[in-house]
């Protein structure tokens, strides 16, 4: 029976239209729609203590999250970042006073993709939400995160972590929310997908709480940060860089020229070493770092172009608690 089912599925896949691989420079346009407003206060935690797995994780947590806040939660591994946000949305118990706005429509993104049924295909997962007769719409939605052809028509248990991440984000986009709680939303994503979700979150009209190790995300998306450290969680107004007194580093996507390395060299501004045959993407704001290598014939432009995310410094200002 299992063999027959596999053969049937293979025949179905063979009959499906094969999509051409998108060009590297194609951008993803994503918009997350917000539900009706949730009220001024979204979450309030007063003197809350959180235990998980029989262990005390956080104590005396006092936090207020207001409508429209974009909060990044950061800290070292094992400090309790994910535990904090799970307690905030009531997924795990906590001692103390926790209040969640009655009008809060929460969309939760788990870094472990708990909401995905790995027995289903990506297409089947989307069709469960939008209706079984909307196959073309399902494929268009998945294509916004570069999921095409067999990637959407084979069981998700066979997909990579990055592909599952894209499916989970697609599912999130279909839900009507006014609060997004995201656990490592940029993990596994490639540069175009990361840029797309960051831009979508900037335009989102609701409240965002995101656990992340990505300092660029903390600076480009978040207007407040919560540092989780040594059993405590403390909120600060401003970006991560403002809190740490560093220049803000944001990332933008630019068209970059592709070069081929003709002779080994080191880019002394970054410390990166290149060997003959390597390919190098050089964005316009990086050209000064490579001009000497171009002038000495160490790299040669191939004529190819790709999109590349590059860091741009802005003034940090003073962080405030």
Describe the fold and architecture:
- With 321 residues, the protein is of the alpha/beta class.
- The protein has two domains: 2-35 and 105-249, Rossmann fold (3-Layer(aba) Sandwich); 250-314, no CATH class.
- Helix content is 27%, strand content 31%.
- The chain is built from nine helices and 14 strands.
- The strands form four sheets. It has a six-stranded mixed β-sheet, with helices on both faces.
- A hairpin with a 2-residue loop joins strand 8 and strand 9 (232-237).
Fill in the keyword field for this structure.
3-stranded antiparallel sheet, 2 domains, alpha/beta, disordered C terminus, 27% helix, Rossmann fold, 6-stranded mixed sheet, 321 residues, 14 strands
Secondary-structure map:
Layout: H1 2-15, E1 41-52, E2 55-66, E3 70-74, H2 81-88, E4 95-100, E5 106-109, H3 122-130, H4 135-143, H5 161-173, E6 179-183, H6 191-203, E7 207-211, H7 215-220, E8 224-229, E9 232-237, H8 240-244, E10 248-261, E11 265-267, E12 272-274, E13 279-282, H9 287-295, E14 299-314
Parallel strand pairs: 3-7, 3-8, 5-6, 6-7
Antiparallel strand pairs: 1-2, 1-4, 8-9, 10-13, 10-14, 11-12
- Helix percent reads 25-40%
Shape: globular
Rg on CA atoms, Å = 23 Å
Integer average pLDDT: 82
The oligomeric state of the chains shown is single chain
At CATH level 3, the topology of the largest domain is Rossmann fold
Side by side, the strands of the main sheet go 5-6-7-3-8-9
Q: State which percent range the strand residues make up.
A: 25-35%
Give the biggest sheet.
6 strands, mixed
CATH class of the largest domain: Alpha Beta
Q: Can you tell me the residue ranges where pLDDT is under 50 for at least 5 consecutive residues? A: 11-29, 317-321
End-to-end separation in angstroms reads 63 Å
What's the CATH architecture of the largest domain?
Answer: 3-Layer(aba) Sandwich
Query: What is the N-to-C succession of helices and strands?
Result: HEEEHEEHHHEHEHEEHEEEEHE
Question: Strand pairing plus helix content: what structural class?
Answer: alpha/beta
Question: How many strands appear in the DSSP assignment?
Answer: 14
Number of alpha- plus pi-helical segments = 9
In CATH, what is the homologous superfamily of the largest domain?
Answer: P-loop containing nucleotide triphosphate hydrolases
Please give the domain count: 2
